[in-house]
Write a structure and sequence with these properties.
By secondary structure, the protein is of the alpha+beta class. The chain is built from five helices and five strands. It has a five-stranded mixed sheet, with helices on both faces. α2 crosses α5 and α3 crosses α5. The chain starts with a strand and ends with a helix.
């Protein structure tokens, strides 16, 4: 089967590669581009381990073909780190508040949390729980994930106020 050129912006940089028409975005990211932050979980869109941000929306990369992403802007958990490579605010809050245990769901959780906080900068606990509902964790019981997202909101809002 002929491969199709795929080009998009990934974490701020233009990337390109060739993909078979039915190659899923998660496989293109991991196998073609070597971006292993997003994880392959259920491969049915239920768990959210593969969540990436595409054109301002959280998407499960196991449900999209790579060719569908052509021309898009995609952010993965790697793109949420600080420019110097240190942990970004949300990544640090997940570490600090023990919002991870085995770590399998963590990249998708952090990427979804980032989009949630773009949409709702000062969420209530209920809004966090609802907003993160499409991402499943089998280890933490979610309480520490919710704490990490709320702490992230507080940190980001404080930084925004200090900059103004």
């Amino acid at each position: 089967m002929d491969k199709i050129p795929v080009t998009f912006t990934l974490n701020g940089e233009t990337v390109e590669g060739l993909a078979e028409p039915r190659m899923l975005l998660i496989h293109f990211l991991r196998e073609t581009l070597g971006v292993t932050g997003p994880h392959i979980g259920c491969e049915t869109s239920h768990c959210g381990a593969c969540t990436v941000d595409m054109d301002g929306r959280s998407v499960k990369s196991c449900t999209l073909f790579a060719v569908q992403a052509s021309g898009s802007e995609i952010v993965t958990v790697e793109g949420l780190a600080n420019p110097d490579g240190t942990l970004g605010v949300i990544q640090e809050m997940f570490r600090e508040h023990h919002g991870l245990q085995c770590g399998f769901c963590t990249p998708g959780m952090i990427t979804r949390a980032w989009r949630l906080l773009q949409e709702t900068p000062n969420p209530s606990e209920e809004q966090v729980r609802f907003g993160m509902a499409g991402n499943l964790c089998r280890c933490t019981g979610y309480q520490n994930i919710v704490k990490a997202v709320l702490a992230s909101a507080a940190e980001l809002n404080a930084a925004k106020e200090a900059a103004e």
